[in-house]
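Continuing the series of single-chain predictions for the mutant panel. This is the parent chain; the variants come on the following pages.
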Amino acid sequence: MGLGVREIRCGGEPVLDTENGEELMRVQAGVDIALGNRPPESTGTLYITTRQVIWLSDADNTRRGYAVDFLSISLHAVSRDPDAYPIPCLYTQIDTDAGEDHDSDNSDSDSNHVQDLSNIREMRLIPSDPSQLDSLFEIFCDCAELNPEPTDEEEGEEHDWIFSADQMQDDQAEEEGYIPHNPNNTIGQSNGNHDLARTVLQLQINDKRFEDAEEIEDDRDGTRH
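Parent structure:
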């Protein structure tokens, strides 16, 4: 999964991945965009889909613009404080791949521009009509819910909880306050009924009636001879 802002070019409307369920949620004309500390770019059109935010400039026919996946947007908020930014806007923070190495040998301006985009951590969307900010914020919230952060590590930890039969028996016994018997003594195994196991084991150890019965049988056999 690529992170951060990427530059795109479209001949017209952006192409969506409809085969995999991507849907267009909102089209908002008259929106400026400001990336990082750069000044706002010329007015364009904002497209919000169930997976990404796309802004396309209206200044040229090639419709140069930017796109960022919702999985890369770690925070979004409405900003109306002139001390934070002079124009009301929708402020977003973006996760980036800036820590990865980039090819610094290529001096081409386009390549340098792409490298600069990889360092963009903030994006501001500035509608010409500030009253649209609240509705844009709500759509961002809805789409963020459709793109929860991956939890591969948590799922891996859950599925890595593998125990042997002996470990499960020992853990269960400790939770119930039962001291396990000698595992070589099969009489103590009772499919989890520890009270029954303890009773049978106690009878085996303390009850001498079995020994007395054997002695009586030996005496009877001796008298017969």
